[in-house]
Amino acid sequence: MIYLDNAATSWPKPDAVGAAMVAALAEAGNPGRSAHGPALAAGRILLATRRLAAELFGASPDRVVLTGSATMGLNLAIAGLLSPGDHAVTTDLEHNSVLRPLYAARQRGVALTIVRSERGQVGPDAVAAALRPETRAVVLNHASNVLGTVQPLDEIAAVCAARGVPLIVDAAQTAGALPVDLAGVPVAALACGGHKALHGPAGTGLLVLAEGVLPKPLLVGGTGFDSFAETMPADLPEALEAGTPNVPGFAGLNAALELHLADPAGPPAAALAAAARLRAGLAGLGCWAAPDVVGWGVPVVSGSVLDRAGRVIDPGEVADQLWQRAGIAVRAGYHCAPLVHRHYGSEATGLVRFSPGPTTTDAEIDAAIATVRAIHEAS
Fold first, then answer.
1. Tens of pLDDT along 123-168?
2. Is the pLDDT of residue 32 over 80?
3. 266-283 vs 362-377: helix axis angle to the nearest 10?
4. What is the pTM of this model?
5. Which of 72, 13, 40, 4 is nearest to 257 (CA)?
6. Integer Cα distance of 73 and 75 in angstroms
7. Structural domain of residue 314, as residue ranges?
8. Rounded distance, CA 141 to CA 289, Å?
C-alpha cells in the first residue's frame, strides 16, 4: 500500500505510540479518583502529556485541556466564548468543525461574518474590515485541509489583539507540521487533534488556552473532586474535562510528542518535500487541474484529473482507480469544507486529495504520478 491520506490521519504510527498505549492498558487506572498505584500512574500520564504539549506550543501546562479531537476543542472554545448578541468572524476556508459550531451559535443569536479568501488566503486587512464593536471571536484554520495554504497567523493575531478580539485557531493541519509558539503570538485558543502530523492515536486532541481565557463548559460531570459542588470547578484544566479521560490514548500521544520534540523539523520537512515533488509532478502531466493558490505550505495536494476530452473525471472514481491499480490510498470528495469548493469551482464534484507523510518515498510519489497519468490515458 502507498498511503497518501495523512491529512485525514497519519499512518503508520511510530512503534513507541502503540507500545505506550499497551503499557497504559496494563498499568493505568482512572486518574484523580483514588490514591492507589494505577490511579496515580494514569495521573502521571496526563500530566506528562500536558507538559509536552505546553512545551510544543509555548504555553503553561495548566492551560492545556485534553480533548477527544480538534472538533471537540473547537466546540469547547466557540460555544464557550460566544453568547447571544455577540458577533463572530470566520472565513470561507474552514472545515465543518469550525463552520457547524458557528452556525449553531448563529441559531442561538450570534451574528456571523464569513470573510472571502483570495487564492487560498485571507489577509489581515480583510479580517480587520470584518470586525465590529461586538465581535467576540475570530475563528480560522491555520492551514486549509483542502488547498494546503497557510494563513498569515502572526499578522491576523496582531489585528485581533489590537482590537481586543479573541482569536481561535484550528491547527488540525499544522500542529506538528509547522511551529506555533503561542508565547509570541496572541492566540486565545488553539485546537488540534493528536492523530495527524503529531502522529498520535485517534481519539486524542488538545485545546490550548491563553492566560485569562476560560470558556464556559460544554460538558459537565464528574471530575474526581469537590463532588458536592453543583457546578464544574472554576480552574483549568478540570473546568473543561468532565468524565473519564482516554488514558491509553493520551499515553500514545505522550510518546508521539516526545518523538516530535526530539526532532521537530525532520518529519515535517520530509512530508513537505514529498508533497512538493508530487505537486510538481502532477502539474507537469497536463491532465491535472488544481486551484490557483498562494501560500501553499503543508503537505496537502488537491485537484482534479481530466480525461482526454478535458473533462473532470469523478474524484471518487479516480480514488478508486488509484487504489485498484496501485494500492494508493487518497481521499476524494468535499473534505468537510463546503465553502472552499463553492468558492474555488469544485462544488459539483469535489477534489482528489493526496497527503504524503514523513515516510513517503520518492518511488511512491513517482508511482502516484504515473498512476494518475494511466487513469487519464485510459479515459
1. 999 999 999 999 999 999 999 999 999 999 999 999 999 999 999 9
2. no
3. 30
4. 0.96
5. 13
6. 5
7. 2-9+265-377
8. 24
Whether 132 and 187 map to the same domain: the answer is yes
In the 8-state DSSP scheme, what is residue 175?
A: B
Residue type, 260: H
Coil, helix or strand at residue 30: coil
Residue that finishes a domain, picked among 262, 285, 308: 262
Q: Are residues 71 and 200 in the same domain?
A: yes
For 175-190, what is each residue's pLDDT tens digit?
999 999 999 999 999 9
Phi–psi pair at 140, nearest 5 degrees: -155, 155
C-alpha grid cell for residue 82?
460566544
Which distant-in-sequence residues (6+ apart) come within 8 Å of 174 by Cβ?
A: 142, 143, 150, 180, 192, 197, 298
- The closest alpha carbon to 142, from 78, 70, 81, belongs to 70
Same domain, 191 and 274: no
Instruction: For residue 158, give the nearest of 209, 123, 206 by alpha carbon.
Output: 123
pLDDT, tens only, 76-113: 999 999 999 999 999 999 999 999 999 999 999 999 99
